[in-house]
Amino acid sequence: MKIKSFVCLMLGMLMVLFSSCDKIQPDVESLLSPPKLTQEQREIYDALVETAVSSSIKLKYPKAGEYRSAFVMYDIDDDGEEEAIAFYDPQQEDPSVRIKILDKQNDEWVSVYDKANGSGGVDVDRVMFENVSSVDRKDMIIGWNLINRAEKGVGIYSYEGEKLVSVYPDETTSDDMDTYSEMVVEDLNGDLRKELILLKNSTSTLRSSVRTVGYRLGRVQPLVDQPLRDGIMGYSQIESTSLEGGGVKLYADVYLGESMMGTEMLQVTADEIIYETQEDEVFNLTMRSSDLPSRDVNEDGIIEVPYNTPLPGYDSEVEDGALYLTHYNQWEEGQCIEVFSAVVNHENGYMFIMPPQWVDQVTVVTTFVSNEWKFIRFNETLENDSDALLYINVYSEDEYKDRNTISQRTLVDTKGIFEYYMYVPENADPELALTLEQAREQFQLLV
To answer: What angle do CA 184, 190, 193 make, to 5 degrees?
Structure first.
């Protein structure tokens, strides 16, 4: 045992010794990245290390968006050849990430630009290339993770004469960098320039707002600000659809607490933001007690917003074990139009669309069988569950299946290692009974 301990100690010391000699310090991002570089990537990497401002650097990778590589390849100077854009931490007293641009000249990669970002960004959220300040060339939009800030910073840069020039905020002024929690980029007025829609949220004050940013009167500047309701704890996702007259409609799914969500709906154009869910009575019809995203559930090009109510027999005040009916609604000109209602099983990844005649008449209970839902005609209490209409069971491939139970079930779908079964009792109430084929048509796997 002593010999093994000594060997392990020596190996550990050697690992520390060799890692301290390496110019690129590994981190989680590096360990998760592909270990092998192409020949071109190796040449870029070598040129980066040789010209970095310190001998020990750490590469930074964009966390979101289209570009996730350590080297963002893009023709930023419109010369027909791609440049390599890299982000790195020099691991010095100033934690700000540096931006380095490398250009291939005479078959060799050379550094043409290397500067610390002026935003105080310590990590890179995303990188985009869009026409914002000009229709002739694309600007580089960088989302920065800021030190000690939950919100992120956004900078818009133009590459001019081998130099990145900040056009938002304007580097000739002392304006602070704008912030966002989520960002959408769209052409809101058809002028071939994109506007930024910045959705903001302060985790300390729980105050939220939406701002548009675009090119007006010769510069990129804030356009319209719209406060949202207080109490939003964060954004889950953002969906958008085009408006006929220009602009977009945003569906912002927001967290309201540990188990509550809602959806803020806004019409965003070049000149205004119409806050559709400003009134509580409208917003309340988007609230649900589970993590259900707004989405186009019937593939008609219109986003449906979920809203749920307790199934018969469940108290809305009781959260643990309560099951809900989820209503998927479209919103047109302030009017709520229900597309369908469904019971959603998040844990097992499916939903069952309730036939219209079942709504308010049928509820769901769990049984002693694991991952089984039993649909019953509701008769005063959940304990009175003898009027069974449908069973849905979920098993993993290698899970034990009781012979008596599985012999009655029909496999209706699979997803990965999971198998989904149904059973329609022969003595189901004829007023509400479905055939197996009808029940199968109402069943959908969650995306």
So the answer is: 60
The beta-carbon contacts of 267-272 under 8 Å, at least 24 apart in sequence, are: 267/243, 268/186, 268/188, 268/197, 268/210, 268/212, 269/188, 269/189, 269/243, 269/245, 270/188, 270/189, 270/195, 270/212, 270/214, 270/223, 270/246, 271/223, 271/224, 272/224
For residue 193, being part of any structural domain is answered with no
pLDDT tens column, 279-304: 999 999 999 987 899 999 989 999 99
Helix (H) or strand (E) holding 391: strand 388-396
pLDDT tens digits, one per residue of 406-439: 999 999 999 999 999 999 999 999 999 999 999 9
Question: Is position 123 within any domain?
Answer: yes
Q: Which of 146, 180, 214 is the last residue of a domain?
A: 180
Q: Is residue 200 part of a domain?
A: no
Q: What percent of the chain has pLDDT over 70?
A: 91
What element of type H or E holds 274?
strand 273-275
Compute the C-alpha angle 228/234/238, nearest 5°.
Answer: 80
Question: Which percentage of the chain shows pLDDT scores above 90?
Answer: 74
Q: Are both 30 and 163 inside the same structural domain?
A: yes
Domain that holds residue 52: 25-180
The last residue of a domain, from among 153, 180, 207: 180
